[in-house]
Amino acid sequence: MSFRVHTFSLDEIESAWQKSQVLVEALPYIRRFTGKVVVIKYGGNAITDASSGVDESLRSFAKDIVLMHSVGIMPIVVHGGGPQIGDYLKRLGKSSEFVDGLRVTDAETLEIARMVLVGKVNPEIVTAINSLASIAVGLSGSDAGLILASPHSNEHGFVGKVDLVNPAILEKLLSQGLVPVVATIGVDAKGQAYNINADSVAGAVAGAIEAEKLIFLTNVEGIRMAADDPSTLIRQIDAEGLRALIDDGVVSGGMIPKVLSCLDAIENGAKSAHIVNGTRDHALLVEIFTDKGIGTMIRSSFRDATVKEVG
């Protein structure tokens, strides 16, 4: 009689044990967040040109979304596309002008933004998710009256601000077991389109649908007391403390729109908001399913928290 024997090395056994520990740590969070909505803002910096194939960071992000969905969490993805819009404008010989961090948008730039966000970036994210599980549906704020917008200011042109989010189409898609992927184009009452800052849209969507979490995937670890000192990362903070940091100038520059969107979401019904370094593999899973997380978590107050959650 012949037979084969397969043995495991100590390293393999250790690896299996560590994986089991991860699952044990994740279990309470899976139970807590099953059936809950999580809004994820996914920046355009994480997506490469389609001609080079699906970027590994996008593939990693797609795996996180599919895993979240498979354990009963209901993700909504809101994405930007600023770098891609800027790239297309350069190819067409059109320069970009920014006022207060927002791209001045004339009629031609608006059409390019719509083409890039709705016709390029959105399908890339949807395709990456659907290559793993057929659950993602792309849409924009102009679909089914999702985002009602108005001009941000006269000097910004067709840059919009969110006046109202009607979550009916999102709720319908979620009820059918689908993952909405939202491009941030909104329209006004007359049907005029506007390009809207994705941070603002994510915050407004999270508040309107009363999400359990709003998670910003950025290229920094979170909010720091000293911008150039990683050791000063703030793990958790309440809304009052966050406003104080803004007033004191601790939060500044490009972090301000994200922080204001976090506050807007919390004030309008979201349970918590998180700012996380999305360039790290599986950042979403680490933030949601582990005790320590990797970023900054913001809540209206931590006094009433019943489950240990840290950003």
Ordered list of secondary-structure elements with their pairings:
Layout: H1 10-33, E1 37-42, H2 56-70, E2 74-79, H3 82-91, E3 98-99, E4 102-103, H4 107-130, E5 136-140, E6 147-151, E7 159-165, H5 168-175, E8 179-183, E9 185-187, E10 193-196, H6 198-208, E11 213-218, E12 236-238, H7 239-247, H8 255-267, E13 272-277, H9 283-289, E14 296-299
Parallel strand pairs: 1-2, 1-11, 2-8, 5-8, 7-10, 11-13, 12-14
Antiparallel strand pairs: 3-4, 6-7, 9-10, 13-14
Helix pairs in contact: 2-4, 3-4, 6-8
Radius of gyration: 20 Å
Which stretches are poorly predicted, pLDDT < 50 over at least 5 residues?
49-53, 304-311
Name of the CATH first level: Alpha Beta
Name the CATH architecture.
Answer: 3-Layer(aba) Sandwich
Q: What order do the SSEs take from the amino end to the carboxyl end, as H and E?
A: HEHEHEEHEEEHEEEHEEHHEHE
Strand order across the largest sheet: 5-8-2-1-11-13-14-12
How many individual domains? 1
In CATH terms, the superfamily is: Acetylglutamate kinase-like
Provide the residue-averaged pLDDT. 85
Please state the oligomeric state of the protein chains shown: single chain
Largest sheet, described in full? 8 strands, mixed
Q: Helical stretch count?
A: 9
Category by helix and strand content: alpha/beta
Described by the principal axes of the CA atoms, the overall outline is: globular
What's the number of extended β-strand segments?
14
